[in-house]
Specification:
Chain A is 75% helix and 3% strand. Chain A is mostly helical. With 371 residues, chain B is α+β, with helices and mostly antiparallel strands. The chains are: A mainly alpha (283), B alpha+beta (371). The A-B interface holds A 1-2, 7-8, 11-12, 14-15, 18-20, 22-23, 89-91, 93-101, 280, 282-283 and B 81, 115, 118-122, 137, 139-141, 143-144, 146, 148-159, 163, 167-168, 170-173, 208, 211, 221.
């Protein structure tokens, strides 16, 4: 038994990239990224009443809510049927009749689809960043680069989740269900958390006054989208969130190191499960 | 566990005799009975009593002694899906250089067997050896030498045939310079820059045939390669199979359509409800089943009634009237007797033909029967 074959991984990754970069949803979402950056920068600029375009920090904070949904969406679209769909169509039968191990197929898919996401993010946010840099300047460039890296990381987390679902589900249609569930988890998590907070005896007044318990914040670790938003704020060096007239300090527990470790956990666990399901799967 | 020691084939009367081992004292006991019969057995040595069910007598392959002459060796392959026995102890061998037909009705376990052979599904028990290697241990090594075309093959919609074949060449570590000739060989030159997503079913199958030849495998496993294709494509695919075989490759292909198998294969295995019910050459299967040749006798002065002389004649079966002809099944030995009896009875015979049994007859008899 010879070892893990990197060439096979690269071959699968290249194939996935070529096949998916032409996916029209991905092209559309990349265009949406570019437009969003420009629109939010314009909105951010309008708020200050000075420049036409806002600086990088204000722009990013404006679109963070949307990008934390769009990136998972791209990842889920790319990954949800990568195994279940190919098993159903029969393409995977051919691939697995070649001298390649399942773990190599899995890593190849992760890297190939991950590079589609990275490509889309780099083009979308990169181009937007260049426009802002050219018009407003290089303020907050470090935070902006952090934002791009964290966005790619978020993409990989959701890709890992989507591939896990795809490895587990027998059919394409059931993995669509799984994809929707993980997508909505990111969307409704905040609402669920507020409900839990009210259930724990906090009132709307507490919330508005910024009297928010630390556990409320710390529990962002359970939602990759919120985790990502917090990490981006940290990347810009923000320690408290000022919004709707109140200011909340981000708890010390959520240091950049902690956030990155939690990101890694969110990435690794679904991937390990994906391999477990894929290995024992009857194709 | 009672262990089979010798061939289950007995005399001409279809009796099966077998030597089994007493599970307690290991004494050899000889038993005899009809195929499939449950027999009560008593050990003369230790008086242990028990039952033994004789195997259904199936036409067995002649033993292949030279193991290097075997490409694929499947033993007791079993796979359950949610309590259903998809494949139940399938055992067969494919010889080097032959075209082997894997035949059975839909849902009999053909695809499951093939997938288990390639480790696409995990068998519950059994052994698969291909070119002398075990698929469980030497999966990667074995697959370097296999070309597999699954049933209703599918490729990546956004890739062109060239990109698709590029991908598979890289997976096998094969030089890509062969791609143009592969594309030419299957006649897809006009479509080589089109996305595979725009291809017809037949074209995808042809691309599958180009794919399967990558790396010049010595073994081809084709799952229902002609299913769902129209006559023109079927003809092309048949020619491809014969072409590959003439270049020395071993080919195993599955089908539920007899006419596809009959004219192409050297030997066949017939699978039914997950069990191999026959493995042999087509003529041996027919012989075993005692499917008699059909005789067609045409008369000049036929009255349209079954001749009295044939009515109670032993060895004559299934008499049928077709216009001025009579169709019947009989052993070849009594053909001349039939003719002389008819002529004595005043019939004037103008034509006389025999039709050899086809695999179709054998297949119907095996699959519909309780074999």
């Amino acid at each position: 038994m010879d070892g893990f074959n990197l060439k096979s991984v690269y071959t699968v990754a290249k194939k996935e990239f070529l096949d998916n970069i032409r996916n029209k949803w991905i092209i559309l979402l990349t265009i949406i990224f570019i437009l969003l950056i420009i629109v939010f920068s314009y909105v951010a600029g309008g708020q200050t009443g000075e420049d036409t375009f806002g600086n990088m920090q204000n722009t990013v904070f404006g679109l963070l809510g949307i990008s934390s949904l769009l990136i998972p969406l791209i990842a889920i679209i790319l990954g949800f049927s990568t195994i279940s769909g190919e098993a159903e169509s029969g393409a995977l039968y051919v691939v697995l009749s070649y001298p390649i191990r399942r773990i190599e197929v899995l890593f190849g898919k992760l890297l190939g689809l991950g590079s589609v996401i990275s490509f889309s993010i780099l083009i979308g946010f990169g181009l937007g960043g260049i426009i802002i840099a050219a018009t407003v300047g290089l303020d907050y460039i470090k935070g902006y680069l952090g934002f791009i890296i964290l966005s790619i990381f978020l993409g990989f987390i959701y890709l890992s989740l989507a591939i896990c679902i795809s490895s587990y589900c027998k059919r394409r249609i059931t993995s669509i269900g799984g994809g929707i569930v993980i997508f909505f988890w990111g969307m409704i998590y905040g609402t669920v958390l507020i409900a839990v907070m009210f259930g724990a005896g906090y009132s709307m007044e507490d919330f508005m006054a910024g009297n928010i318990p630390d556990w409320f914040f710390n529990s962002v670790v359970f939602s990759p989208g919120d985790l990502y938003q917090t990490a981006v704020q940290r990347a810009f060096g923000v320690t408290s969130i000022d919004a709707m007239g109140f200011s909340v300090r981000i708890p010390d527990f959520l240091s950049m190191t902690t956030l990155i470790i939690v990101h890694i956990i969110w990435f690794v666990i679904p991937l390990v499960l994906a391999y477990y399901f894929f290995r024992k799967r009857d194709i | 566990m009672l262990i089979l020691l010798c061939s289950p084939f007995g005399g001409l009367d279809n009796m099966v005799s077998k030597i089994i081992k007493c599970p307690k004292c290991k004494t050899h006991i000889t038993i005899q009975g009809n195929p499939g019969e449950r027999i009560s057995v008593k050990c003369n040595n230790c008086n242990t009593k028990g039952y033994f069910t004789l195997p259904d007598s199936t036409p067995q392959a002649e033993p292949i002694r030279d193991s290097s002459a075997i490409s694929i060796d499947i033993r007791n392959l079993t796979k359950h899906f949610k309590g259903v026995n998809a494949v139940n102890g399938a055992t067969f061998k494919v010889k080097k250089g032959e075209i082997f037909g894997f035949l059975g009705p839909n849902g009999a376990g053909k695809t499951t067997t093939i997938k288990a052979m390639l480790n696409l599904i995990h068998m519950d028990s059994g052994q698969v050896r291909i070119n002398g290697l075990d698929i469980k241990n030497d999966d990667i090594q074995i697959k370097k030498n296999i070309g597999f075309l699954p049933e209703r093959v599918s490729f990546y919609e956004n890739l062109t045939p060239i990109q698709t074949l590029n991908f598979f060449c890289e997976l096998k570590g094969v030089n890509k310079s062969i791609i143009p000739s592969l594309i030419k060989n299957v006649g897809l030159e006009d479509a080589k820059y089109r996305k595979v997503g725009t291809f017809s079913k037949g074209m995808v199958q042809l691309l599958g045939f180009a794919q399967v030849q990558i790396g010049n495998p010595t073994i081809y496993i084709l799952d229902e390669p002609m299913s769902g294709l129209d006559a023109r494509w079927v003809k092309i695919i048949r020619e491809k199979i014969m072409d590959l075989n003439s270049r020395g490759a071993t080919i195993m292909f599955s089908s539920h359509i007899l006419s596809e198998v009959e004219s192409l294969c050297n030997r066949v295995a017939i699978i039914k409800k997950g069990k191999i019910i026959a493995e042999n050459t087509i003529s041996n299967i027919s012989k075993y089943l005692r499917i008699k040749p059909r005789l067609k006798i045409t008369f000049k002065n036929f009255n349209g009634k079954i001749p009295e002389v044939l009515k109670n004649l032993e060895g004559v079966e299934d008499i049928e009237i077709r216009g001025d002809s009579l169709l019947l099944s009989c052993d070849s030995l009594i053909r001349s007797k039939i003719i002389s009896l008819l002529e004595k009875a005043g019939y004037v015979i103008s034509d006389f033909r025999t039709f050899e049994p086809s695999l179709e007859d054998a297949f119907v008899k095996l699959v519909d029967g309780d074999a």
